[in-house]
Amino acid sequence: MLRGPGATCKCGWHDPLPGTRRERAESYALHLAEARAERLRSCRDCKLRKDLKWMSAKPGLCKSCSSARTRAWRDANPDEWERHRRRSYLKQKYGITPEQYDEILAAQGGVCAICGDPPADSRGYRMHVDHCHSTGRVRGILCGPCNRGLGNFADNPTRLLAAVDYLHR
């Protein structure tokens, strides 16, 4: 609500001074309705008028219709979706492409960089990307047990050497 004559809305609208308090309040209410109407857009799928905050980055679609389209495409194209998901994951998490992943694995001879075992997961999982947690630099591709082992030792060489000494005793 406006506070006194001559009040200004944060959008720049200015309250006209003449008129009663009721007229100024009605003028402001009309301004708010017009401002809200300017923010409304129609979704081309569901045909509902929605505020801009509910519209997606895809032109003309609300977020719920955009999500529904994405789900339908994902269900119709599972192989393409998996390629897209893997590419996005590797890029976001490690800063590498699937091609770079394949190059690193090929440079290791297609086996784990630590134990030398081939990827032998019957569920179809790929080998893990090992990276330095402080710098983010990718060190190599590891099998699950080796990757978990490094993680359990907190990537600490002193702990790993102590474990080696322990095993030799």
Automatic annotation (TrEMBL):
Record Pfam families: Endonuclease_7 (PF02945)
Domain of life, source organism: Bacteria
Species annotation: Nocardioides aquiterrae
UniProt protein name: Recombination endonuclease VII
